[in-house]
Amino acid sequence: QRRMWAYTVGFTVLPHVGGFLGWFINRKDMPVWYERLKKPSWCPSRKIFPVAWTVLYTGMGYASYLIWNDLGGCNSKAIVPLGLYGAQLALNWAWPPFFFGIRNLKMALIDILCLDGLVIGTMCSWYCINKVATLLMVPYLGWLAMATCLTIRIWKDNPEAKPGKTE
């Protein structure tokens, strides 16, 4: 019983680790640079992002635990569903360093477009395993849709922020 709690907590906390590290590494210059970017009127307030990501990371982490548990742990049946999950998590964690760290809007855009595809693939692979886990990913996919549109707009509307671009 105690061991299952450890797995539940571990899977649920794991997504937060990369999210926290991304914030921690990029926190110094992020607010000033981000505020200077031209953003659409529908861009959420910076204050919303930590709250949203806390909820989203918790939901996706718990969902991954449900999949792992239903498949009986790490075995051959888990390779594709948890592999897709791990790949999308890696791309999720890579986005802040691309966007805020090296300020490469094009790489951030490529990253998030690939991330969208991996999240959809993850959800499709999870659907026949655990519908609740799949549903826990729906808010994440919705947020990613908004974040993808926002990344596209920021990339298009800030040509001076694109690396290698000369005026």
TrEMBL record:
Pfam family, one: TspO_MBR
Name under which the protein is recorded: TSPO protein
Entry similarity comment: Belongs to the TspO/BZRP family.
Database matches in InterPro entries: TspO/MBR-related_sf (IPR038330), TspO_MBR (IPR004307)
Transmembrane segments: 6-26, 47-66, 78-95, 107-129, 135-155
Predominant place of localization: membrane
GO cellular component, one term: mitochondrial outer membrane
Membrane topology, record value: Multi-pass membrane protein
Alphabetical keyword list: Membrane, Transmembrane, Transmembrane helix
Compartment(s): Membrane
Cross-referenced PANTHER family: PERIPHERAL-TYPE BENZODIAZEPINE RECEPTOR, TRANSLOCATOR PROTEIN 2
Lineage of the organism: Eukaryota, Metazoa, Chordata, Craniata, Vertebrata
Source species of the chain: Nothoprocta pentlandii
